[in-house]
Amino acid sequence: MKRQRSGKIVNLASIAGHGRSASSSSAYAAAKGGIITLTTKLAHELGPHGITVNAIAPSMTLTERIRPHWERRTEEQKAREIERTPLRRMAEANDQARVICFLASSDADFVTGVTIDVTGGL
Description:
Shape: elongated
Strand order of the largest sheet: 1-2-5
Mean pLDDT: 95
Radius of gyration: 16 Å
Strand content: 15-25%
Structural class: alpha/beta
Number of strands: 5
Number of helices: 4
């Protein structure tokens, strides 16, 4: 990337990295907080080489790994989780992928050093 004087890096953090996840361990939150800080620092270091560095911070997303845990919840537990999300639904993998695609596209050529929360307003 440095040789070609361009590139895009998109890191995957979590809202846990902002301390906003009730179900995450402190170790997970610390690791994701580190990703957020690394994103900012790398953006400053790599910007002069034409490389952007950004991250997304998803909330719970119904991926193949998470969906079985979600399905084991009671309808009442699911309803409570959905109710606390302003968009009134759970995130799907495509919700995260679309933001990653934006950050990797030329539409985001002047966006660097940011972490975008992809949470449905949580």
